[in-house]
Amino acid sequence: MTRTKRIGLLSICIxxxxxxxxxxxxxxxxxxxxxxxxxxxxFNGQEKKAGTEYEMKSREVxxxxxxxxxxxxxEVKWVSSEPGVVTLESTAEGSNFVKMVRxxxxxxxxxxxxxxxxxxxTLSCLVKVxxxxxxxxxxxxxxxxxNERILIIDNVDDPPKQIYLKYxxxxxxxxxxxxxxxxxSASLVTWESDNESxxxxxxxxxxxxxxxxxxxxxxxxxxxxxxxxxxxISMRVVVAPSFTLAYDDIEGNKIVKHSGNSDKNFTPAEGxxxxxxxxxxxxxxxxxxxxxYDASNNKKLSPTSNKLNYxxxxxxxxxxxxxxxxxxxxxxxxxNEKYSTxxxxxxxxxxxxxxxxxxxxxxxxxxxDTYNIADNSNIPDIGIFEFYYEEAGGSxxxxxxxxxxxxxxxxxxxxxxxxxxxxxxxxxDNDSVFVGDKFINVTVIDGISLSATEAKLFTNGTLLxxxxxxxxxxxIVWSSDAPNIxxxxxxxxxxxxxxxxxxxxxxxxxxVVKRARCEITVQQSVTNITVDPSEVNLAIGEYKTFxxxxxxxxLSGVRLKWKSSNDKVVKIIEENPLTVTVQGVSGxxxxxxxxxxxxxxxxxxxxxxxxPVTGIKLSDTNVTINLQAKSIQLRAxxxxxxxxNKAIKWTSSNTQIARVNDNGLVTLLKPGEVTIIAxxxxxxxxxxxxxxxxxxxxxxxxxxxxxxxxxxxQSKRLTYTVLPVNASKNAVxxxxxxxxxxxxxxxxxxxARQVGTTVIMLKSIDGGHTAYCTVNVRQIAEGIxxxxxxxxxxxxxxxxxxxxxxxxxxxxSHLVWESSDTKVAVVDDKGRITAKGAGVAxxxxxxEAGGMSYVKVTVKEPVKGLLLNFSxxxxxxxxxxxxxxxxTPSDASNLDVEWKSSNNNxxxxxxxxxxxxxxxxxxxxxxxxxxxxxxxxxxxxxxxRLTSMELNYDEYRLSLKxxxxxxxxxxxxxxxxxxxxxxxSNKSVASVNSKGKVxxxxxxxxxxxxxxxxxxxxxxxxEIEVVRPVTRIKFDKSYISMLVGEQKRIKVTVEPKNATYKxxxxxxxxxxxxxxxxxxxxxxxxxxxxxxxxLAQDDSEKIAVCQVTVHKRVPATSIVLSDKKLxxxxxxxxxxxxxxxxxxxxxxxTWSTDNSSVASVNSKGKIKAKSTGRAYITAxxxxxxxxxxxxxxxxLNVTNLVMEQYSRYTLVVEGATSRxxxxxxxxxxxxxxxxxxxxxxxxxxxxxxxxNGRKLTCKLKVVKIK
Length: 1266
Known about the structure:
Elements: H1 3-23, E1 40-43, E2 46-48, E3 53-55, E4 60-66, E5 74-80, E6 86-90, E7 97-102, E8 106-116, E9 119-129, H2 135-138, E10 141-143, E11 148-153, E12 161-162, E13 168-169, E14 184-185, E15 189-193, E16 199-201, E17 206-209, E18 213-223, E19 226-239, E20 243-248, E21 254-258, E22 276-280, E23 289-294, E24 299-301, E25 309-312, E26 318-322, E27 327-334, E28 347-354, E29 362-366, E30 370-372, E31 385-389, H3 394-397, E32 398-400, E33 406-409, E34 413-421, E35 438-445, E36 449-450, E37 454-458, E38 462-464, E39 467-468, E40 477-480, E41 486-489, E42 492-495, E43 499-509, E44 512-523, E45 528-532, E46 535-539, E47 543-551, E48 561-564, E49 570-575, E50 579-584, E51 588-596, E52 601-610, E53 615-618, E54 622-626, E55 631-633, E56 636-639, E57 648-652, E58 658-660, E59 665-668, E60 672-680, E61 687-695, E62 700-703, E63 707-711, E64 715-717, E65 720-723, E66 732-736, E67 742-744, E68 749-752, E69 756-764, E70 770-778, E71 783-786, E72 790-794, E73 798-800, E74 803-806, E75 815-819, E76 825-827, E77 832-835, ...
Parallel strand pairs: 3-9, 11-19, 13-14, 29-35, 37-44, 46-52, 54-61, 63-70, 72-79, 81-88, 90-98, 100-107, 109-116, 117-124
Antiparallel strand pairs: 1-2, 1-4, 4-7, 5-8, 6-7, 8-9, 10-11, 12-17, 15-18, 16-17, 18-19, 20-21, 20-22, 22-26, 23-24, 23-27, 25-26, 27-28, 30-33, 31-34, 32-33, 34-35, 36-39, 38-42, 40-43, 41-42, 43-44, 45-47, 47-50, 48-51, 49-50, 51-52, 53-56, 55-59, 57-60, 58-59, 60-61, 62-65, 64-68, 66-69, ...
């Protein structure tokens, strides 16, 4: 077909289309424009405003944008800034719908480009895909008591465990390429352990157990789309606790017991001593939660209980137990403080059995001495035994108190006390523990004996002999048979020179001489030892012989003991009395000691064993890094750990590519390959290498075109730039947000498919940098169809023609417009018609392809406005006036108008515009043109002549210098539309202006009168009293709490004192709860809260406010005190806390004491100890309930004491009713037994008495015998 025939055929089609369209009777219309802020996003039915954040919790989410309703001619284009986080897929719902598909953790900005008519809006929201653990793949479980996911590592020596994240690439074991599909790699997240003494975690998420306990692992990721927002999640890792108990049993056997992982069917550790140490698998003992239970009653024991003590080390893995009483105990170790046996987490358990240890089973006593079995054994309660004597009359020799377990020596002799275990005492948790009979052999002497019968001393040495006597009141005479060898003074023996001396202690009682002797052998001693050499440096494996010199040199038979402080560093090979040969074993330091064990004189030599470097390990061995990083810090670990010289020399294989300083800091200079070498200074043959590949990263990408227009079927290639031009990896990828509109291939060639808009995205593989180009695909228009064949306009009216293009998807809509008569109507290049004058014209539109269509336009002259002769008017009731109207233009075709009154009860209007006043008030007369509906109004005020009037106040109290405005009122309504004449009877007291404003000048009275000026003769008056005002009212309290039936007074102060009206008006916010009289007495009637106010009687409006709360009386049914018994020392103060039942009781408490000289008590329950003795403190409630506490005040009879050497004094704890434990800070100065002090050496020390946990001290000074 020829071109001419094609054009002709096209013209016929356009003409037919135009005719059909003109005959269809359609009319033009325009849509209402929707504002951008009316649009909002809807995620799976959840509405979100633009600019907000949405967390995507499911794999796919249906998203659409709407403004409540949706115009069918609106088009939306969607863009995701991070397809690695969220991709977008089109749906069949329409362009305003899109399907979001989750790809990986991070943030992505979802942008909707909305086109509605000639308007284009861009709206965005931030979509977040959170980091998630892959719990199943990681192998996590749920802790039942804390409801948290945990990863359990059973043994410290287990290989590292991998924590898996969703959407993260992982390299399977044995493969080099990562699993595809992840959005981020493990190298882009940061792993951190909050307790590296439990587990450590590397950069790939592998956790390695270090010690028992629990730690929180946190992973944080920074995404490319929003570097300032981090995603972070945490999980807990539990390393199963375990511990070991090693001890010697009662028979000396070495026992090692390991904990179990359950408290069921555990074989107990038997024969455990009273003091032992547990070694756990935790780096620090405090990393675990420890619990100890008494198995006999299943009670939890504190670390300082009366059954045992234990301390948990903060610096090692041990837990130390001491003073453990006999019994069965259960020990638990949990991974953290929140775990228990009910938690689905591993724990360690051990049951131990501590047998009964009596201590010394053979005791020697002097008549009158006592021995406490409980204090000298691990028995928790003396009541677990029954006592029997093996010999008849044994109790006459030594008597045992069955209640306290104290043995008292009565007379000279021997006896055996048998202790029989009561099985009913339940000391152990079952009958499987057999407790045999225990025996204590007691020997009672009556005479004198010494603490030693023979002794060996070295010259200048001393020995203090103690004499045990029956009667300590008889003096003891001390003597030496060789005072030149050894002398004695009050039992203190001093060795003078080698030889033998006999020391005798003699006491004469009723003529009987009692003696005791001690043989003293004095030997010459070594005074100094020198080891040669005193300092030496050895190699590993090297031997060295050391010599010892002694002073004095003439001593014979001296044998020294040689000892190395660290056998792992220095080992003794051969030792002789004065020489020793050692060998260096491993690197380190040790001290070699030569010891004279006779008098502990020591000589030293310091030995250093050199440990060579055997290896170096670098923190990184292969690194690929961007030049932008500028530097990288390498760290070297030198092996072995005890190497003496760990210095490292750092070098670079190419200093033009990278330099390294003495600390291993590598400075990157330019791209390339370089090797950093770490060399041991101690052993240059030992080196380590790190290979570094330096790359230039992609900094940005840019498209040469940010927007382009194409026509359907057209193709073009987009060009781009990658910066810097020498980037190491400059590969890119291409994508289109809408492949139905346009597609793009790997070379950037875009092909237009159909009309619409799409965004072509360029993204660098290195760094993920992006650039965008908006492609608008258009279609040439071939024809036009109007919505209506004819339109009616009025002059000056503007109308946009409504039409559609042929074909319907045509976008290239350039049309040529013309009017057949520009005096009637003109048209612009957008199809907008402006009516110019009355008449008929045809508007014609032509396409570039030759298509043509027209519209018939009829223009008329309309009414453009109107005016009234009055816009407002005031008349009296019954009067009339005429309103006249002027219509513009005067030659308008329709000059008819309509009249209307807004309120016919006030004014009426005729159809000719005559207005009549009916009643007082205001109404509006409105005139409206029938053509165009133009309006004009007149506000009409109708007044009524006054017949009577009054003022708003009959009388008024007005403060000096203040003003008040009076108003005229008729029928309780203020008159504002009339004028009045105002007159004051006494202007010097109060004046009034023309507006009715009254001003006070001096104290007194004046009458203000208003006279009507409408001729009615009406008037009204107000009596004004000018007063001195109240400036302040205040209460003495702002809050009062009361009980029902109680009365309290609130004091009110009115200032100034010379105010005219000093008594306030009392006001209560709510009736029925309280009443208040004129003197301020408040009486509580019922439960509730009200506000009591005092208001000034003048116009100052001063007020005071107090909140009153009335409580219902709740009597106490009982009172309980926090302590039933107290032991206090003189001067001490302690507050006792009472508890009332019920807890909401509002009874007050009265405190009293029956012995104020011993202890006093104040109204708050604070007790003060005054003197020794006993007092009873009583607390009584309003309802008569009482509780009593027994207070025992104790104190030493002496707090400062001076004694001569070898004398005795008995301290007494006054007021004590329970057992007293005595102790001395320096036993070399003095001893204390049951309060009796025996002084020994000169000096100062402290004697401590402990009663019920309270410590009393006495400062003791021992002086030389005078």
